[in-house]
Structure formats: C-alpha cells, structure tokens
Structure to design on (124 residues):
C-alpha cells in the first residue's frame, strides 16, 4: 500500500505514522507536488491548512495540492481530507469528488493510540 500524508503538524503526522507505518510525508504544497509527480498512491491523507497558510492562504493549502491531483492517476486514490477547516474540506471535495472529509475533531489525535473514527479506512 502506497500512502502520501500531506500534513504540517507533527502530532498529527505521528498519529498517522503510528497507524500506517512507512509512507511519504509532505509538509508543504511543493513537496506534495514533487511526490505526486513521481508516484501513484493508494491513499492520500490531505490537510487543508499547511505551513504558511496564515501568511499566504492562496498558495499554502491542500486545495492547491488537490488542484494538482485532479485529472492525474492519483485522482483515483482513496483521498481522506483530514482538516479542521470545514470550508477547506468542502473546497477540496468540490474538485476531488471521491475525497472523503474526516475532520480531526471527530477523534482525539493528541493522544497516540486513542480510538479513531470507525469510518477511517486506515485506522485501527
């Protein structure tokens, strides 16, 4: 299983890594695009508010990554939008219809090993 996690918060990355193991990690838009250019993924875990979002919200979001994914083979990946930004999740899902929003507010990611949302296909 080939997985890409697009997330800038370390505690969330650790939560995913504890459950998924080996995967590619991108903390910003450009790194995500670099991985997506070279690889086809089974799962993409996509955050909306990435590093630099507050300083440059039009260029530092998962929406920019989603626009890149649209129309590529990675569009067929299982895409989980894991953001606390509902408007951001809606924007991503509007251009990636197979994406599923799974906000972090639905489970406690601050404690590794907490019981996650049962709808998450990658969680135990």
């Amino acid at each position: 299983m080939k997985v890409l996690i697009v997330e800038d918060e370390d505690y969330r990355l650790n939560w995913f890594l504890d459950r998924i193991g080996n995967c590619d990690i991108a903390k910003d838009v450009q790194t995500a695009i670099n991985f997506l250019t070279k690889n086809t993924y089974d799962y993409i875990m996509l955050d909306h508010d990435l590093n630099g979002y507050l300083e440059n919200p039009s260029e530092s979001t998962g929406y920019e990554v989603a626009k890149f994914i649209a129309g590529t083979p990675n569009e067929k990946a299982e895409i989980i939008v894991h953001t606390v930004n509902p408007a951001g999740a809606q924007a991503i899902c509007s251009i990636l219809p197979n994406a599923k929003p799974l906000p972090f507010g639905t489970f406690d990611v601050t404690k590794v090993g907490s019981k996650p949302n049962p709808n998450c296909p990658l969680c135990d």
The beta strands are 3-6, 24-26, 43-46, 78-81, 100-101. The chain has one domain: 3-106. The two ends are 16 Å apart (CA to CA).
